């Protein structure tokens, strides 16, 4: 009998916000709907993206990204990598940053919320994925992330820094910031680093800002619980966007 064992991994559990409104039948596509082909292209972005779009400081550090695996489960995506691999943590963080930035660059931007943790995982790299590492990442996303952001628990961040070589650590600092909100502090992936790096003429900034403002305007007169939740999410993203782009 084959013995199945856990592998310690860094793992990201990401949830696509508003996914049910994006899934159309492919025949009569609405403004906010995505066809199956478009959904597949979104999911496969991280496999196509060249790494030199991740870092924008000099010197550029090239890392092998094929060790980062992906599993898709309806509106959820898991990226994970064996934590015994050198610079595994920064590879996962960079993958998430680029993936999140690419979703925000779409004509109808897509928001993500997620959690990154560390722990045991069993997987066949196809349809089976379970273990305490995944559970911790799911709890981070569902109970603590709250806003369209990808948070990392403190213990994972500390372990990740130890996994990162000295020459890479300065680049890692550009991809993570500490978010102080709701009397809590979390390490958060700074996807704006990747978003800005491929938007030097501010076209995507203007488009995303316009998208957010339209959403906020459409929700301005709604007072139900769902509308309040959506306004909070879009307001958070607008604050992060302007804070990065309008910084001196």
Describe the fold and architecture.
Helices cover 43% and strands 21% of the residues. It is α+β, with helices and mostly antiparallel strands. It has one domain (7-198): Nucleotide cyclase, GGDEF domain (Alpha-Beta Plaits). Strands 1, 2, 3, 4, 5, 6, 7 and 8 form an eight-stranded mixed beta sheet that branches. Strand 2 and strand 3 form a beta hairpin. It is globular. The N and C termini lie far apart (62 Å). The relative contact order is 0.15. Mean pLDDT is 81; it is low at 52-59.
Topology record:
Layout lengths: L6 E10 L19 H8 L1 H4 L20 E5 L2 E7 L5 H17 L7 E12 L5 E2 L1 H14 L4 E3 L1 H10 L2 H10 E6 L2 E6 L2 H6 L5 H17 L5 H21 L3
Parallel strand pairs: 4-6
Antiparallel strand pairs: 1-3, 1-4, 2-3, 4-5, 6-8, 7-8
Helix pairs in contact: 3-6, 8-9
Summed up:
The protein is an alpha+beta fold and 248 residues long. Helix content is 43%, strand content 21%.
Poorly predicted residue ranges: 52-59
User: How many separate helices?
Assistant: 9
Beta strand count:
8
Principal-axis shape equals: globular
Structural class: alpha+beta
Strand count, sense and barrel status of the largest sheet are:
8 strands, mixed
Keyphrases for this structure?
248 residues; alpha+beta; Alpha-Beta Plaits; 8-stranded mixed β-sheet; 9 helices; 43% helix
């Amino acid at each position: 009998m084959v013995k199945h064992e856990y592998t310690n991994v860094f793992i990201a559990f990401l949830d696509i916000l508003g996914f049910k409104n994006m899934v159309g039948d492919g025949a009569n596509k609405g403004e906010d709907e995505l066809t199956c082909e478009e959904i597949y292209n979104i999911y496969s972005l991280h496999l196509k993206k060249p790494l030199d779009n991740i870092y924008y400081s000099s010197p550029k550090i090239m890392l092998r990204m094929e060790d980062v695996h992906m599993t898709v489960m309806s509106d959820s995506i898991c990226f994970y990598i064996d934590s015994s691999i050198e610079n595994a943590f920064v590879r996962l963080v960079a993958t998430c940053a680029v993936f999140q930035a690419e979703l925000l660059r779409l004509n109808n931007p897509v928001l993500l919320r997620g959690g990154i943790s560390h722990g045991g995982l069993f997987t066949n790299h196809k349809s089976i994925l379970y273990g305490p590492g995944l559970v911790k990442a799911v709890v981070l996303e569902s109970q603590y992330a709250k806003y369209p952001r990808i948070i990392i628990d403190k213990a994972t961040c500390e372990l990740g820094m130890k996994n990162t070589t000295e020459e890479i650590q300065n680049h890692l600092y550009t991809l993570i910031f500490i978010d102080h909100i709701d009397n809590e502090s979390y390490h958060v992936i700074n996807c704006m680093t990747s978003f800005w790096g491929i938007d030097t003429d501010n076209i995507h900034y203007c488009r995303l800002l316009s998208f957010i403002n339209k959403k906020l305007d459409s929700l301005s007169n709604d007072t139900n619980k769902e509308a309040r939740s959506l306004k909070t999410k879009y307001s958070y993203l607008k604050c992060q966007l302007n804070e990065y782009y309008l910084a001196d």
